């Protein structure tokens, strides 16, 4: 996905997710509540939580996760250096495939600025 238009990808994914939410409203409400609770400020600030989510997205090889969490990390003030360190931890935990998805995550971060 290195030539991805990450903003268009987010728009397309949001449209598909809206269709899915209509098809399974109860589960979607539950997932939304979980997401809200998980990302709320607490012992960890929202930026740290987004960096964790980005690292998990890298190791899980989830393109949508890269897009949404790179964008959110940027929104909460994550620097490019923090993104790079997050990618480093993901590579440590996930090996070569995480290196490939780490490159995608950095490209998403750079493109969504």
Automatic annotation (TrEMBL):
One MF annotation (Gene Ontology) recorded for this entry: peroxiredoxin activity
Carboxymuconolactone decarboxylase-like domain residues: 28-107
Gene3D superfamilies per UniProt: AhpD-like (1.20.1290.10)
Protein name as it appears in the record: Carboxymuconolactone decarboxylase
A Pfam short name: CMD
Organism expressing this protein natively: Hoeflea olei
Domain of life of the native organism: Bacteria
PANTHER family linked to this entry: ALKYL HYDROPEROXIDE REDUCTASE AHPD, BLR3452 PROTEIN
């Amino acid at each position: 996905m290195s030539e991805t238009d990450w903003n268009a990808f987010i728009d397309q994914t949001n449209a598909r997710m809206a269709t899915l939410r209509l098809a399974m409203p109860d589960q979607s409400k539950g997932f939304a509540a979980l997401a809200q609770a998980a990302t709320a400020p607490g012992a960890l600030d929202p930026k740290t939580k987004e960096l964790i989510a980005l690292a998990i997205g890298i190791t899980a090889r989830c393109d949508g996760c890269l897009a949404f969490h790179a964008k959110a990390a940027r929104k909460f003030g994550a620097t490019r250096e923090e993104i790079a360190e997050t990618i480093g931890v993901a590579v440590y935990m996930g090996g070569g495939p995480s290196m490939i998805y780490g490159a995608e995550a950095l490209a998403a971060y750079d493109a969504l600025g």
